[in-house]
């Protein structure tokens, strides 16, 4: 399964979160009542959460685990109150009775939350970051770039490597349950009592908040959250189904974090009934018109995935460039830029050709809050 690592500044806040089996990001509300890119990015992270994904906490150089997202009333993620995904300045008094987390007026900053349990436990023995990274260096990609974020998502192999080092350091406590955090069901019970369809997490309001009358979205991150939502919840077939999805995934050699290249959306799917990866997804997003340089950018990511994930087999990669419009010059340039020649086997060598980049035009309808896609 995938995993999430939540960063906590306060050890008591972390312990409370573990005890109650909930996590919620504090979001500073925008003064102009328009979500910023960092808000939309946080919402996008919640959208792909699903039952069974693992949970970890990071505090003061140490990582604590292990948890697992669980469904309550059919889902593992919720709005803290109805319309919490709108950047409105609600008053605590008017909505407190509808809030899942209602500790104080500052709880209005908690717009989304997720629910989890220990799996098997959250151990009190945290593992130092250096020990984690050195335990299986090749597996840790996203953890090395964990910087200026409230939390990150890690893929299956990185997740397993993190579980391994935590279990190794807590093997003596597995059977006894000693030195583990206890659980409370207070917030989970409140969710069972309070939640209905008004608390459902989706991209509808995120996109609507930055929509235009001409069918394009003003923020690429809002479009990113929408596409993640549509793929995760099978609202469109054009991109196919993927077992793992993430966004803003590192796609360059290690260097200062602010200068690292990141794929808008990355994913993979398994061969049905097996844990063998069959395909990788590379998806780049442009809110306006696409350019020839955008095709070059996607292909740079395709080459990176081929090098780091599919190890020379381009056939494992499916790539998409999504934009509001594609000028004819871009369409005409695509065939020359996107072809990759490679060798499939060694003995005898079998030459292959890859050109699996698809151009997808999007349009947003603010009336019904729906995204529409069409292949060029």
UniProtKB/TrEMBL annotation:
Top-rank taxon: Bacteria
MF term (GO), any: nucleic acid binding
Name of the protein this chain belongs to: Uncharacterized protein
Taxonomic classification: Bacteria, Bacillati, Bacillota, Bacilli, Bacillales
């Amino acid at each position: 399964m995938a995993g999430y690592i939540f960063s906590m500044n306060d050890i008591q806040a972390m312990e409370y979160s573990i005890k109650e089996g909930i996590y919620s990001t504090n979001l500073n509300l925008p003064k102009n009542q328009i979500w910023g890119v960092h808000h939309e990015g946080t919402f996008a992270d919640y959208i792909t959460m699903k039952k069974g994904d693992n949970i970890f906490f990071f505090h003061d150089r140490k990582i604590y685990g292990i948890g697992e997202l669980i469904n309550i009333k059919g889902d593992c993620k919720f709005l803290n109150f109805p319309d919490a995904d709108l950047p409105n300045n609600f008053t605590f008094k008017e909505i407190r009775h509808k809030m899942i987390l209602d500790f104080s007026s500052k709880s209005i900053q908690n717009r989304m939350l997720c629910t989890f349990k220990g799996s098997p436990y959250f151990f009190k023995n945290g593992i130092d970051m250096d020990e984690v990274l050195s335990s299986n260096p090749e597996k840790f990609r996203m953890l090395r770039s964990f910087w200026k974020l409230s939390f990150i998502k890690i893929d299956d192999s990185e997740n397993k490597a993190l579980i391994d080092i935590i279990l190794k350091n807590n093997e003596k406590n597995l059977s006894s349950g000693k030195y583990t955090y206890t659980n409370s069901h207070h917030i989970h019970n409140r969710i069972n009592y309070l939640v209905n369809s008004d608390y459902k997490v989706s991209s509808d309001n995120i996109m609507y908040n930055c929509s235009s009358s001409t069918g394009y979205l003003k923020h690429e991150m809002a479009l990113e959250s929408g596409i993640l939502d549509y793929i995760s919840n099978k609202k469109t077939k054009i991109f196919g189904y993927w077992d793992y999805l993430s966004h803003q995934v590192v796609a360059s050699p290690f260097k200062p974090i602010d200068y690292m290249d990141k794929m808008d959306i990355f994913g993979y799917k398994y061969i049905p009934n097996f844990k063998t990866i069959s395909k990788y997804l590379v998806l780049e997003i442009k809110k306006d018109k696409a350019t020839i340089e955008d095709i070059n950018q996607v292909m740079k990511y395709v080459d990176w995935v081929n090098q780091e994930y599919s190890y020379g087999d381009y056939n494992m990669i499916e790539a998409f460039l999504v934009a509001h419009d594609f000028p004819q010059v871009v369409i005409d340039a695509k065939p020359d830029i996107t072809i990759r020649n490679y060798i499939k086997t060694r003995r005898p060598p079998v030459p292959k050709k890859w050109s699996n980049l698809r151009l997808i035009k999007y349009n947003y309808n603010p009336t019904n809050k729906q995204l529409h896609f069409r292949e060029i």
